[in-house]
Design brief:
Helix content: 25-40%
CATH class of the largest domain: Alpha Beta
Number of helices: 14
Radius of gyration: 20 Å
Structural class: alpha+beta
Strand content: 15-25%
Largest sheet: 8 strands, antiparallel
């Protein structure tokens, strides 16, 4: 068992243990009200765990408990891993951030931008600016998601089967061919919109490295970092048995109900290797990834990124230095836009007062559609993670609540 446990007296690292226990009491109330079926939270400082709890049932209907072996669909927590993969290739000189992606993905040679009209007959024009690598890393490419339900282009995606995934049998190359021939929401580099940019980035990794994305992840990231339980699917046997069931909220009372149609994700090898949202992982594995991030690209003597590259990844790259409120299109998630920028694969906290959070300037983070999330606070040397399996993440404010609960227990600022 990849058990996570407290390995130091929290007081030695500036935390009040009684206040940390508020985390458990708070999230257990979600279980009591049947709003979640399971949850896990891990908090660490200076690389040492000060709080670790896993409660509930990974499969309520089968009566199976959640534990540290539970595999969680981490959805968009895949994105930082794909971004790390791309920046590893950047460091090898494979491309520059300003390179046009059509150099590697010729299907994107002639992007067009939506002007007006409905999904069935939109008016478009040739893009004045090509999509560049940094546009993919920052979600400023003009690509979108079908599940946004906020724009005619979103509807075009949905009509073709690109909502919470891709049509059956379509691989990553096939999906990129569709997206390349679908209008962009805006001129690349002018706005921020959450979408399939990181999936296209994953395809870029494949083409540049000459390796399928799963093989690149396994050999270049997971094996070096000791993340042995992270993959695009749970293998038959113990790993599959430990995969948590997926739940959605009832429309009337938000109680969690099982959804096996969406829950099929992660149960077998997919044709589509989604660098934007396809991985299954354990809390222990992702804890190792957060420690790699906290240590600016190195863990246990294994360095995958230089400190300078990593620092640039966690700075705000949005046009004009603006925050997401100023330049971003509305999200489906419960997180705020005020005072939050975006780097190369992570959100970046620019102004805690504006964001109405107790976090620190420079804190970087991201989450997943099934209400999972993580953040890293370099200033205070803190990492925190939350896992459950309730889709969508906008259902409950579990991720901002974790920030509140962690920082109220911190008694010693650095």
């Amino acid at each position: 068992m990849s058990e996570l446990k407290v390995d130091v007296d929290p007081r030695e690292l500036g935390f009040d243990p009684d206040r940390l226990r508020r985390i458990d009491r708070h999230y257990d109330r979600y279980l009591e009200r049947d709003l979640l079926t399971s949850w896990a939270a891990v908090v660490a400082r200076d690389g040492q765990i000060v709080h670790a709890t896993v409660h509930g049932q990974r499969d309520r209907e089968a009566g199976l408990p959640a534990d540290w072996n539970t595999r969680w669909r981490i959805y968009s927590m895949t994105k930082p891993i794909t971004s790390v993969a791309a920046m590893m290739l950047f460091e090898e000189g494979a491309f520059s951030l300003l390179d046009e992606i059509r150099r590697f993905l010729p299907e994107f040679s002639q992007p067009r931008v939506y002007l007006r009209g409905g999904a069935t007959n939109p008016s478009t024009a040739p893009a004045a600016e090509p999509i560049r690598v940094w546009h993919l890393l920052t979600h400023t490419s003009g690509l979108t998601y079908g599940f946004h339900h906020g724009h005619p282009v979103d509807e075009i995606y949905r009509r073709s089967g690109y909502e919470w995934g891709v049509p059956s049998g379509v691989d990553l190359a096939g999906a990129c061919a569709f997206w390349a021939n679908t209008p962009l929401l805006f001129e690349p580099g002018t706005e921020w919109n959450y979408g399939v940019s990181t999936d296209v980035l994953g395809r870029l990794v494949e083409v540049v490295s000459g390796m399928p994305l799963d093989e690149f992840f396994r050999t270049r990231i997971f094996e070096p970092l000791g993340m042995s339980d992270t993959a695009f699917w749970a293998e038959e046997g113990e790993a599959l048995d430990n995969l948590a069931a997926l739940y959605i909220p009832r429309p009337d009372n938000k109680r969690a109900i099982r959804n096996d149609a969406l829950g099929a994700t992660g149960r077998s090898r997919p044709a589509f290797l989604s660098g934007g949202g396809g991985l299954v992982s354990t809390a222990a594995d992702y804890h190792r990834f957060t420690q790699f991030l906290l240590r600016r690209g190195e863990l246990d003597g294994v360095r995958l990124l230089s400190p300078r590259t990593f620092e640039r990844m966690t700075q705000n790259h949005l046009p004009g230095g603006f925050d997401l409120e100023r330049i971003g299109r509305p999200l489906f998630a419960e997180t705020r836009y005020d005072g939050v920028g975006f780097g190369l694969g992570f959100s970046v906290l620019l102004d805690p007062v504006k964001a109405k959070t107790t976090g620190s300037v420079g804190e970087f983070a991201w989450g997943g559609a099934a209400s999972t999330g993580f953040w890293v606070d370099p200033q205070q040397s803190i990492t925190a993670m939350f896992f459950t399996q309730l889709l969508p993440s906008s259902t409950h404010p579990v991720r901002p609540e974790l920030t509140q609960l962690v920082y109220q227990a911190l008694m010693d600022d650095k």
